[in-house]
Amino acid sequence: MNTLVEDLKHLESAEDFLNYFAIPYDVAVVQVSRLHILKRFQQYLAHVGGVESLPAASAFAACRALLARAHNDFVASSGIEQKVFKVFQTAQGEHRVAIDGLRRKAGF
User: Fold this and answer.
1) Is pLDDT at 89 greater than 50 in this prediction?
2) How many other C-beta atoms are found inside a 10 Å radius of the C-beta of residue 98?
3) What CA–CA distance (Å, rounded) separates 82 from 85?
4) Any idea what job this protein has (predicted)?
5) In whole angstroms, what is the distance from residue 88 CA to residue 107 CA?
6) Statement: the pTM of the whole predicted model exceeds 0.85
């Protein structure tokens, strides 16, 4: 398990993670959604309690399955549709500004 955690610390890109776990991936999907994939992978890991909480004998396989799932989330869907990042969760493409804030800034 310690080896897996140490190995993960040295991976930098989505491609590094996908190659480490030997997951076939769509290059076009990764080019567009690399941060979304890694964030979703992190969310899936957090949901199971993190890498350290996984049984040592099956940690690699579990991480591999979670990363493959994260990649597949974006094969037929976009980052906006998946709402991985807070900006997509709260605004959903709309940006609202309170009129009182504008009035204060303008001195009204």
Assistant:
1) no
2) 8
3) 9
4) May protect the nitrogenase Fe-Mo protein from oxidative damage.
5) 32
6) no
